[in-house]
Design goal:
This protein is an all-beta fold. The strands form eleven sheets. The protein has a four-stranded antiparallel beta sheet, with no helix packed on it.
Length: 527
């Protein structure tokens, strides 16, 4: 046989043996044995959150030798043979090691849910194993959205509250949560009371973490106090912790003073133009030697208006805003006394005494709507004896008795129409609010609710009266109609709040709050 034929036959896979002129041709066997299927594939989630796949390498021919390559795939659906080609391929798999060696691959977490992983092995001849055992992996979401900590009342209007907060994520502060649960109640919301709070329908779908969220709550009763809280939930049913709790009062209330020590600041009153608030405070002596101060609401600066070594109490503006009436303290023998005095509203000066009380004490006062007269309460400096309401001309002179009772009287206020005094009277072991004509006559009790009610002041339009009541357990600021109906609680804190006074437009109240033995002046919106 010629050399060319020998080369052709060898190339064609035919073995040639020659003995003389005879030859025998034998085929070389082809590799048709695939690798064995992997039977030890396992999947788990590591502490770092990645998926770790492990298995034992098989061989080139069944379980012998070293295979050529791996094909690794995964799917949300069970990875059946018919679905192999449509499953997602995992790239970057290293070539197989020698049969029997332990293999591993760390891959990205595909997300929450049920996953199936499978493996096929190929040799250099292109033989491919059957699909391995299927490694099923359930990745459970146990990470809740982070707590919303900046829930706030951005604005309010009559019947509407605007809420604002920053979105948290699906997993703490990453991703996007699935839903919000926004709730309201008439009392502070806690984790324990969350289930009894009312869910507000229509809350927005969460945006990506870090986004600003807003939501308008309508149907708000302006006379009621609403508390709001929110939770964020993810698709797996994980819920964040309870957010911070806000209420409709919190947006409307503002602290005006910060007293440096006890006793603090008390008995505020708006100026007629609404730009200043007067009050008395012991800020310098630390010996209960109160003085009258005026606070600018625009600059928050204060000016002291009196310099009485024994103290000055209960300031009240004149309707024209030029003068302030107050109780000017002095000694009467070994006992304290107080006269009715007035002072100009610019800086410290000597007061003008309008009524000299002898051995008695002037306490609260109120100007007539036209500024021509001042009503005041008078009591004995021993704390005993009858109580009385008197009226004196704002230029001074003789005082006229309007009402005398066997009970202590405090907190007189002149109605805007000039016809009626509201005052506080101690009767039947309770402080109560009473009305009497400015011309005198029989007083009428305004509120009879079994509580202590003190310090009545008329709203500028005469439609309502603000006062302090302990009906909730401690003194809070309330309002009621001029006939004593429809009482509405304005403040809800656990400390005592009293001495309310209206702004000239009737949209705000100032009051004093006694917190940790220190009094300060606060302001709250009534709308």
């Amino acid at each position: 046989m010629g050399a060319k034929r020998a080369v052709f036959l060898i190339a064609a896979g035919v073995a040639v043996s020659a003995c003389g002129d005879k030859s025998v041709e034998q085929p070389i066997p082809m590799d048709v044995t695939p690798p064995s299927p992997v039977r030890s594939l396992n999947a788990r989630v590591t502490e770092s959150g990645r998926v770790l796949l492990t298995w034992t390498a098989v061989g080139d021919d069944a379980d012998e030798g070293q295979a050529q390559s791996y094909s690794l795939r995964y799917s949300r659906a069970p990875l059946l043979p018919a679905l192999w080609d449509s499953a997602d391929a995992i790239t970057g798999v290293s070539p197989p090691q020698q049969a029997g060696r332990l293999e591993s691959l760390s891959i990205l977490n595909p997300g929450y849910g049920d996953w199936s992983y499978g493996l096929r092995v190929a040799d250099e001849a292109g033989n491919v194993s059957d699909i391995s055992n299927i490694a099923n992996l359930s990745i459970v979401d146990r990470t809740a959205p982070s707590r919303i900590s900046d829930l706030a009342l951005e604005s309010t209007a009559i019947g509407v509250v605007s809420l604002r907060w920053t979105a948290t994520g699906n997993d703490e502060n990453a991703g996007t949560a699935t839903e919000y649960d926004l709730r309201t109640a008439s009392v502070p919301i806690t984790e324990e009371s969350w289930g009894t709070a009312s869910r507000i329908e229509g809350a927005p779908a969460p945006q990506v973490a870090g986004s600003s969220e807003t939501f308008l709550v309508t149907g708000i009763d302006p006379s009621a106090n609403y508390f709001f809280a929110i939770k964020a939930g993810d698709i797996s049913g994980n819920w964040s912790e309870l957010s911070n709790v806000v209420n409709t009062t919190s947006l409307q209330i503002e602290k005006l003073t910060s007293s440096p020590h006890p006793f603090g600041a008390f008995s505020p009153c708006f100026s007629p133009d609404g730009r200043h608030v007067t009050f008395f405070a012991d800020w310098e002596s630390d010996e209960y030697r109160d003085q009258i101060y005026s606070l600018s609401l625009s600059s928050r600066s204060t000016v002291r208006l009196t310099n009485n070594p024994l103290g000055a109490l209960f300031p009240r503006w004149s309707p024209d805003g030029d003068r302030i009436a107050f109780a000017n303290q002095r000694n009467a023998g070994n006992l304290p006394a107080a006269d009715l005095a007035i002072v100009e509203t610019e800086g410290v000066q000597e007061p003008e005494i309008l009524f000299h009380a002898g051995d008695q004490m002037v306490q609260f006062s109120s100007w007539s709507p036209d500024g021509s007269r001042i009503a005041f309460t008078l009591r004995a400096n021993t704390g005993a004896g009858v109580g009385g309401i008197y009226v004196v001309a704002s230029t001074g002179g003789e005082a006229t008795l309007v009402l005398s009772t066997p009970d202590p009287l405090v907190g007189v206020d002149w109605s805007p129409d000039g016809t009626t005094f509201a005052f506080t009277r101690y009767s039947e072991r309770l402080w109560g609010i009473w009305l009497v004509s400015t011309a005198g006559g029989e007083p009428v009790r305004l509120l009879d609710d079994g509580s202590n009610n003190i310090g009545p002041v008329w709203s500028p339009d005469g439609a309502r009266i603000a006062y302090a009541s302990d009906r909730s357990g401690n003194y809070d600021v309330w309002t009621a109609s001029a006939t004593g109906e429809n009482p509405v609680q304005i403040t809800f804190d656990s400390w005592n709040q009293a001495s309310p006074a209206w702004s000239p437009d009737g949209t705000k109240l100032v009051f004093d709050a006694f917190i940790n033995d220190v009094g300060d002046i606060w302001m709250i919106s009534t709308r």
